[in-house]
Design a protein that fits this description.
With 269 residues, the chain is α/β, with parallel strands linked by helices. The protein is 24% helix and 25% strand. The chain has a single domain, classed as Rossmann fold. A seven-stranded mixed β-sheet has the order 5-4-3-8-9-13-10, with helices on one face. It is globular and about 45 Å long.
Length: 269
């Protein structure tokens, strides 16, 4: 990931929205990080995948969900395959960077050659319009969102309507560029991103992708790439910080030490 390019992308997005950020506008970095720390949802968790990159941790509250929206396919579809085989959840997948999906099966997904973006134009589609494309199939039922789109998550979610985001009972998202939070332009944009994402959802699991390392801000270890699981608030049954005892750090990349996520979890329990 080119982090300078990501900073430029974020700045351009804000300027296009008519937002100019002065250096003094940045909020406390630690206040931002505190909002990402996982809360115990009061339920068990599932690991879906094969224990490598593309494996996600979900709260076990998926009864009644039939569809997952999964932008960003890349080289593997192990998550989409397993969530279908284990739970019967079919995925709508988009990725214009690949010609064909990386699987010989065709039963667990529908694929379109599109990129998720803030607007619908050409090979780009907004989250609102993507859901509308499948509205006759999915109806008004709850959904899962699994998103790994290399920094494009900011524009895609900032431009989405609150009602669209609320359709997702569970959100699995890979957030890029957390090491840029000390830069005021990125800090302000990220607070707006969290305001949108956390309006009706709560973080319930966090893991650092060990692909790209981590930085230390005070006593908090901040991964450059964060895997975050969120649960819609009407399914939350707890409010205490999530205990580190529930999870061991996960290594996405074999042979590379996992990120310990120091400062993210409660040490009690």
């Amino acid at each position: 990931m080119n982090w300078i390019a990501l900073k430029s992308r974020l700045q351009t997005f804000l300027l296009n929205k008519g937002i100019y950020v002065r250096p003094g506008a940045s909020a406390s970095l630690f206040d931002v990080l505190d909002r990402l720390k996982p809360v115990d949802p009061g339920c068990e968790f599932l690991r879906v995948g094969r224990g490598t990159d593309g494996t996600y941790t979900l709260p076990d509250v998926l009864t009644g969900i039939e569809y997952c929206f999964s932008p960003g396919v890349g080289p593997t579809m192990v998550f989409e395959e397993e969530i279908y085989d284990r739970l019967g959840i079919k995925s709508f997948c988009i990725d214009a960077s690949i010609e064909t999906p990386p699987t010989s099966r065709r039963d667990f997904f529908e694929f379109s050659s599109l990129f998720l973006s803030s607007v619908t134009q050409g090979s780009f589609v907004s989250l609102d319009d993507w859901l509308e494309m499948h509205s006759k199939v999915v109806g008004q039922a709850d959904l899962v969102l699994q998103m790994d789109i290399e920094g494009a998550e900011y524009g895609a979610l900032l431009s989405a309507s609150p009602s669209t985001i609320d359709r997702f009972r569970v959100i699995l998202i890979e957030i890029h560029g957390l090491d840029l939070l000390s830069m005021p332009i990125c800090n302000v944009m990220f607070r707006q991103f969290l305001d949108k994402l956390l309006k009706n959802h709560t973080p319930v699991y966090a893991n650092g992708n060990n692909c790209c390392g981590a930085l230390k801000f005070g006593d908090i270890e901040v991964p450059r790439v964060l895997e975050l699981t969120l649960l819609r608030n009407d399914f939350m049954k707890g409010s205490a910080p999530l205990s580190r005892a529930k999870f061991s750090p996960v290594a996405n990349i074999a042979g590379t030490a996992p990120i310990e996520m120091l400062g993210w979890y409660s040490q009690n329990g």
